[in-house]
Amino acid sequence: MREDPDVVVIGGGVVGLFCAYQLRRSGATVTVLERGALGGPQSCSSGNTGFVGTHGAAPLAEPGMLALAVPGATEPDAPWYIEPSTDPGRRRWLEHFQRACTAEAAAAGFRTLIEMKKRSLEILRDLCASESLAASLESPGIVLAFKTMEGFDDARRAVARTVAGGVPLRVLRSSDLDELEPKTKFDIHGALYNPEGAYLHVPEFIREFGRVLRDSGVEIHEHTAVTGFEIRERKIVRLSTTRGDLRPGKVVIAAGAWSAECARMAGIDLLLQPIKGHSVTVPMPPGAPSRPVLLSEARVAMVPLGDRLRIGGQLELAGMNTSVSERRIQALLRTVRDYLPDLEQPPILESWSGLRPCTPDSLPLIGPAGDLRNLLIAAGHGHIGLGLAAATGELVTDLLTGEHPLTDPIPLRPNRFGASS
After folding, report:
1. Is 4 helix (H, G, I), strand (E, B) or coil?
2. What is the pTM of this model?
């Protein structure tokens, strides 16, 4: 292990890897520390649906979520559930979440997120033009299916505003949907289509990207946990790990749901909460859609992965609990049957759950935190981390090298929630 890299990136998930990618391109020597295996089951990217296109830029904090921001207000297998807790950190997070549930805040958040998603997609397309990563990215568009008349009418009324904001949505007629998915029978009221819907095959992309980075000179150390920091004169001078110490020039914390715990070792309190999601992967059944489909009211996504179909979604604020809930898995499968009743249920190949590191306003934390001169945070990307990671890596590199950033860092500053964050 090199003891004095220019930059140590803590976290080998998709955000950490893109930070390493952009930093290495700038000429820095980079070491990545990953507490588990690259793309392993502990990774938030391991079992998710991999969306990276322009869909999904709306913040989780929006007016419609305000009534649900009460612990225990919904059933445990509902699409959005908050487990009752006396934890002061969660209570403070919910207070800021409620403040962010306004139309004005949601619109501002959308503008920031859509710009990051667009920039990320540009970078991803360039990166995946290389032969080794070419099979990782698919861009077939995404269908947004609405089971209810109310849900479809609300979405249809918002199309013009969404298109003006940079997302190329269009309303599908029944014949349009039949043309897009001729083998799939839907029981829905209506649908929209975003031709910029794209997704990555994960965890395969993570593992291959790691190999590409190693070939470029990035050191990646798996199964290596950070155990502490030595700080002098407002600077991290030593970083201790389970495999030895390092003396980095600069440090980036990009450890996903574990970023808050890591930052606390440096005396920094990040306003992050893990929100658990589930997925189930099955053999591709006959009549399944050929492109990603979002079952909108239920917040459940379906994505084809070659000979497999992955179904994922749900939002559960319940702390650092990574256990897989059979109740949640069955809820996902019931939702699919509601929207696609003729789709037979094949045997389950894999059930998975992962923790998405979320901020109250759905915008990531990117930039300096506390008073440490050589520390940057890159965390809090929520359930759209794959779609924001590439732009995050570029912004982190711009901030560390003093370049003028393409992405505005002001809305993303880690201290925006107050002094204790």
Report:
1. coil
2. 0.95
User: What is the tens place of the pLDDT at every residue in 32-46?
Assistant: 999 999 999 888 888
Cα–Cα distance list, 142 to 93, 290, 324 (Å): 32, 10, 27
Cα–Cα distance measured from residue 257 to residue 382, given in angstroms and rounded to the nearest whole number: 9
Residues 6+ apart with CB under 8 A from 166: 54, 114, 115, 118
Measure CA of the first residue to CA of the last residue in the chain; give whole Å: 32
- In angstroms, the CA 56 to CA 396 distance is 22
Q: Can you tell me the distance from the alpha carbon of 298 to that of 158, in angstroms, rounded to the nearest whole number?
A: 18
pLDDT digits (tens, 9 = 90+) for 382-414: 999 999 999 999 999 999 999 999 999 999 999
Report helix angle 385-401 to 103-127, nearest 10: 80
Considering only CA atoms, which of 9, 84, 92 is closest in space to residue 273? 92
Cα–Cα separations (whole angstroms), residue 318 to 71, 73, 259: 10, 13, 17
Nearest to 98 by CA among 361, 317, 357, 356: 361
Tell me the C-alpha distance between 62 and 57, whole Å. Answer: 12
Cis ω on the peptide bond leading into residue 285 (within 30° of 0)?
A: no
